[in-house]
Amino acid sequence: MKTFISKIYAYEILDSRGNPTVATQVELSDDTVATASVPSGASTGENEAVELRDADKSRFNGKGVLSAIENVNDVIARELIDKCPFNQEEIDQIMISLDGTPNKRRLGANAILSVSLAVARASAKSKKLPLFRYIGGINARTLPTPMMNIINGGAHSDAPIDIQEFMIVPKNFDSFKDKLRAGVEIFQTLKNILRKNNLSTAVGDEGGFAPNLKSNTHALDLIEQATTQAGYKFGEEVFVALDIASSEFYQDQHYVLKKSDNSKFTSSQMIDWLVKLKSQYPIISIEDGCSQNDWDGWIELTKRLGDSTQLVGDDLFVTNSTFLQKGIDLHAGNAILIKPNQIGTLSETLQTIRLAKNAGFGTIISHRSGETEDTFIADLAVATNAGQIKTGSLSRSERTAKYNRLLCIEENL
Ligand code: PGA
Ligand code: ZN
Q1: Best exposed site among 23, 81, 184, 196 by fewest CB in 10 Å?
Q2: 206 belongs to the catalytic site
Q3: What is the overall mean pLDDT for the chain?
């Protein structure tokens, strides 16, 4: 007997910031039931697929997602019921065609992605395979290195620092479990250091600390101190990755660092500043060092740091193969952040990852600042042998859920 999709049902749930988001339940004819939910960004790229919100001020300050849910329950369900769930590309293509816009603004990328992910999860369950194995096949084997965001600035906290994410990256450890433990021990040590310095240990949106620091380099100095005190070698065992998220403060062709350093940089001054930071600290990865609208800056940045540093396009590429191809052609960046909700279907996400790998670009699977307890990205990272994952700090269950899922996968491999 052929298995087919028998029911699709979406409903409103809450994300980690308390904003509504979409969850979708998919049922198959063999009685398999699976659910997926979608995250939501705060520092979103201009070219991301559209997250449909109701804009009805009488509910959730306009952030309700009832229209996206209606699109799943009416428009999408009608077309997908009776279809084979194992043809992921066909399922995704039907939704792309139904939407008919280049950025999924009619049905909403939140509506479409929730169905796309729930269909994949139901299919894996029906085949009695772990999700990473269903998506990645027998070649899925690499646990990603975690980039753990232990200080939150920019749009993710009230801390007076412009750089959005200060991440620690353990290298040369035997297992994912050991890398995670190093991260946790440094995180806990940092907490003690902050407390001793009368700095706040409250956390930002991604679970990293958000203290009242003096400058961006103050944050880096504290991370160095915490790493050393925790017993790890800074620059040998533990490195730094930054998400500058510079599109957030790019105005009139200038980078205006107003939360902290009180500087206004031209594009080349911004690059000089990053080069200087790189010379002072063991920084191995810089995300969105230039703005999504500063392609010339990106090309220059890649010329200057591309040989020594991973340069990650998030807002620049928005998980979209068209923008990524432009970056490959222009030599802008050498790695891509992969956020499924920036593009809106699993198939297109996998397509972008394939393109990146074929071009020798690094790939980092990523959460959003507004997350749910859904751990799909952990499986996706292993399925695609992406090599790296960015899923926040070592606190807040919506972040640790992904790490815990990776621990489980490591045990099972
Ligand atoms: P966002 O931030 O989820 O708020 O967009 C994450 C990032 O910039 O990497
Ligand atoms: Zn980013």
Answers
A1: 196
A2: yes
A3: 97
Is the distance from CB of 248 to CB of 204 less than 8 angstroms? no
Q: Tell me what pLDDT residue 158 has.
A: 79
- Give residue-wise pLDDT tens across range 160-174: 899 999 999 999 999
| 8 Å CB contact between 210 and 157 | yes
CA of 315 to the centre of ligand 2 (A): 7
Q: Is the pLDDT of residue 259 over 80?
A: no
Confidence (pTM): 0.97
Q: Is 89 a catalytic residue?
A: no
Q: Is 21 helix (H, G, I), strand (E, B) or coil?
A: strand
Name residues whose C-beta falls within 8 Å of residue 107's C-beta, 6 or more positions apart in sequence. Answer: 52, 68, 71, 75, 76, 95, 98, 99
CB 135 within 8 A of CB 386: no
Exactly one of 104, 125, 339, 402 is catalytic; which is it? 339
Closest atom of ligand 1 to CA, residue 370: 3
**Mean per-residue pLDDT, 279-284:** 98
Q: With 90 as the cut, is the pLDDT of residue 59 above it?
A: yes
Tokens standing for residue 370: 């507004």
Other Cβ atoms closer than 10 A to 229: 14
What distance in Å separates the CA atoms of residue 165 and residue 321, rounded to the nearest whole number? 25
Four-point Cα dihedral 349, 366, 118, 383, nearest 10: 70
Tell me how far apart the alpha carbons of residues 19 and 201 are, in angstroms, rounded to a whole number.
24
CA angle 209, 284, 311 (to 5 degrees): 100
Residue 68 and residue 107 in contact, taking contact as beta carbons nearer than 8 Å: yes
Whole-angstrom distance, CA of residue 353 vs CA of residue 344: 14
Q: What does the DSSP assignment read for 380-413?
A: HHHHTT-EEEE---S-SHHHHHHHHHHHHHHHH-
Residues lying with their CB under 5 A of ligand 2, a single-atom ion? 243, 245, 287, 314
